[in-house]
Amino acid sequence: MATGLRRWLAVALVLAVLIGGGAATWLGMLEVRQVQHRQAALLMDHNAEAIQRAVANEASRYTETLADITAAVGSQTDFSAADFEAVTSRLTRDRLPGASTVAYLVPAQDDEIAEVQSHWRARGAADLTLKSAGDALEHQFLIFSRSLDHVTLAPGIDLTQAEEPAAALRFARASGEVTASHPYVLLKDRARPTVHKQQSFLLAAPVTGAAGTPAAGQFQGWVTLSMRGSDFVEETLHAYAGDLLKVTLSDQDASVVTTVASTSATARLLPDTSLRRVRSVYVGEREWQIDIEPTQRLISETDRRLPFFTLLIGLLVTVLAGFLADSRRRALKRVADATALLRHDIERRKAVEARLLDREDELRHLAMHDALTKLPNRALFHERLEQSLDQPLAVFFIDLDGFKAVNDGLGHSAGDQLLIDAAARLLQCARAGDTVARLGGDEFAILASAPSSFSEAFAERIVSSLRAPFDVDGQPVTISCSVGVAVSAGGPADARRLVHTADEAMYAAKAAGKNRYMLADAEPAATRTP
Q1: Pairwise CA distance, residues 116 & 127, whole Å
Q2: Pick from 150, 157, 177, 164: which is nearest to 104 by CA?
């Protein structure tokens, strides 16, 4: 009786050890899973923010490039094929990932087609034949285009045959802003094999005559920039996503979400939907949705197996704890080894995050500086101007006179060298703390903190410095510049208005004969020629 009782007590004790140890092991495994989930969630949040910034920066570069081209076209008094070639000559896929075509389009009604065709043939589109499509009251004809992907689009095509780009053009004309289209298959891709067809976008900006031109304020046409969705996603986001994440770009129209493209990920997705992140970016009056999903490679192979190892080791410890103390010691050693591996993986992940932060800083620097002259670009210039509005400052808007002749006569490489040398001279004119920026093309700007009495002397120094001959590939080249100056005494001010005022003063100096400067609030007699 006593022996049987002891046997049952022993069995009960073993069962109690197994049940208690099994429960503790299961709870430990759940805790490890929770730690993994928290780490993965933090990593997903970090990656989602980086990807959102990358898409926003690239989209901003597209819209800024389109705005620069539109301004250049609008400033022409007799726009031609040669002008379009000069304005778009520096555009490449390296600068605009996923870009397909940059084009210039004009509107025409049925009774205007012959006149419009004759007009543009006389301006360099010798083989232009306008081909109207459908019964629209007004057609949207392609006049000039530059292919960035070696797939050309025939001039004269009518974009009203495709509702998506036609709607974007109409909205851009009505709003006066850069507008993105709903996703669609590009017209030049529709005859290609299905494997080459992608959901694509078109960005459209209205062209109006610039101040000082005969067509000032009048609508003239559109500049468009099309991009293929899959190419944009792969070229922009592959470095961020790799095989760790799957990123899907979609267009959101009200409650309807249209998938455009996704990054290619060879690893399987994690089934945990709570790790999915959704971000939004607004481009050209449209909302782009970015879905970021983790793959199994987000959690390393060691981390994925760690819960299983924890469960296995815990069970072994539980079973052997009742028999051999040495088995418990070996099991604890395995747990210590597994903990060391986990610590190593955590440190490695921290190192990866540090490299990602460094890469973010590098990308921000690239996004805020001009690739040719290394000067701050338009975005950084406006940012610093916004930060300086509460103190006295002066904005100098500088346009190189004669640059186009050098660029056309000596070639683009000579033009690039001239821009670099001009930037160096402007830096020599400026003081420490001043911001010298290249706004695009041959336009520069300087932001200086100074009283108004300093402005004229500074402007004279700029004009004199750029008038001196340049040495371009051993050949002396002489140009001049027109400078517009706008001064703010500090306090509430509109940064865009201040830049616009300096821009108008520059055009006034150019109209007065170039090679001079003009103060924005001065009478015509205050125009200076150093």
Answers
A1: 13
A2: 157
Q: Residue 257 belongs to what H/E stretch?
A: strand 256-262
Six token digits for residue 144: 């000039």
Q: Which of 341, 332, 280 is nearest to 305 (CA)?
A: 341
Identify whether the C-beta of residue 271 lies closer than 8 Å to the C-beta of residue 246: no
Position of tokens 């706004």? 439
482-509 per-residue burial string, b: 16 or more CB within 10 A, e: under 16? bbbbbbbeeeebebeebbbbbbbbbbbb
Closest by CA to 330, choosing from 343, 313, 315, is 313
Q: Is 522 helix (H, G, I), strand (E, B) or coil?
A: coil
d(CA 317, CA 315): 5
Nearest to 459 by CA among 488, 482, 428, 431: 482
d(CA 207, CA 218): 8
* H or E element that contains 379: helix 378-387
Of the candidates 178, 285, 226, 223, the one whose C-alpha atom is nearest the C-alpha of residue 74 is: 223
Q: What amino acid is encoded at 433 in this protein?
A: G
Supply the DSSP string of 261-316, one letter for each residue: EE----SPBPS-GGG-EEEEEEETTEEEEEEEEEBGGGS-HHHHHHHHHHHHHHHH
Whose structure tokens read 């924890």?
A: 310
Dist CA 417 CA 401 (whole Å): 16
First to last CA, the chain: 121
Using only C-alpha atoms, the chain has a radius of gyration, in whole angstroms, of 32
Distance CA 384, CA 413 (A): 31
Task: Output the pLDDT for position 353.
Answer: 74
Instruction: Count Cβ atoms below 10 Å from residue 176 Cβ, excluding itself.
Output: 11
Q: How does residue 524 score in pLDDT terms, banded at 50, 70 and 90?
A: very low
Q: Are 258 and 299 in contact (CB under 8 A)?
A: no
Please tell me the number of Cα atoms within 13 Å of 144 on its side-chain side.
21
Residue 54: name the closest of 290, 287, 259 by CA. 290
For 57-93, the pLDDT digits (tens) are: 888 888 999 999 999 998 888 899 999 999 999 988 8
